Amino acid sequence: AQTVTQSQPEMSVQEAETVTLSCTYDTSESDYYLFWYKQPPSRQMILVIRQEAYKQQNATENRFSVNFQKAAKSFSLKISDSQLGDAAMYFCAYRSRGGADGLTFGKGTHLIIQP
Amino acid sequence: KAGVTQTPRYLIKTRGQQVTLSCSPISGHRSVSWYQQTPGQGLQFLFEYFSETQRNKGNFPGRFSGRQFSNSRSEMNVSTLELGDSALYLCASSLVSGGGGNNEQFFGPGTRLTVL
Fold it and tell me: C-alpha dihedral over B22, A107, A103, B116, to 10 degrees?
């Protein structure tokens, strides 16, 4: 079975600075997808960024980018120019191409933005 | 286009009762997945329905069941409630089943179930 580990329960960053959230995963499959989801307090979970395992190029979405190291099974999220609205729980998630087990989530990282 | 809706948003039940939660997917989406979110276990996959058929199932007891209707709306049922079933139940919809890269899952606001 696949596992996703987020080793940072909580991170804090000053507004306008850059922060990196860590995620490692374990799988025996070669074709899969990785995701970062954001869950603001009392609000819906939304997709921040996705990465396809067969693509070597790291995904970017505006201020959000990932560092995908397939051999190391590492998938970190970098948030540049942090904003107050970035404060939320961030979940790293995995899904195989077949998706038989749905999304497998990490425990999450609580991101605090200091004004 | 309206997002994923879940009803009710909050629910209080007592042990031994049963409960039914509802999820309406985004128009045009045919797949609905259910997840349980608790502080201790985090987010865990319950099951996925596509075209009225259960396609995938997580590691939950048989007390947890679901179904999907022809309009893609889905219901989840938990029988003989236990204290440990207290959780936020999230529903997610997507165009089709499976983990394809463009098959993004859109989440609803969740139903907060409290079992007393």
Answer: -20
Sequence-distant (≥ 6) Cβ neighbours of residue A110 within 8 angstroms: A9, A10, A11, A89
User: What are the φ/ψ torsions at residue B83 (nearest 5 degrees)?
Assistant: -55, -35
Confidence of residue A49 (pLDDT cuts 50, 70, 90): very high
Closest CA to A43 of A109, A105, A107, A88: A88
Beta bridge partners of A92: A36
Closest residue to B109, CB basis, from A44, A93, A105: A44
- What confidence tens digit (pLDDT) does each residue in B65-102 have? 999 999 999 999 999 999 999 999 999 999 877 766 56
Using CA of residue B111, residue A49, residue A106, residue A109, what is the dihedral sign? Answer: negative
Distance of CA B29 to the CA centre of its chain: 15
pLDDT tens per residue across span A75-98:
999 999 999 999 999 999 999 887
Residue tagged 């219901």 (tokens): B75
Asked if A101 lies within 8 A of B56 by C-beta distance, the reply is yes
Distance (Å, whole) CA A72 – CA A74: 5
Q: Do residue B108 and residue A105 have CB atoms under 8 angstroms apart?
A: no
b/e A62-95 (16+ beta carbons within 10 angstroms → b): eebbbebeeeebebbbbbeebeeebbbbbbbbbb
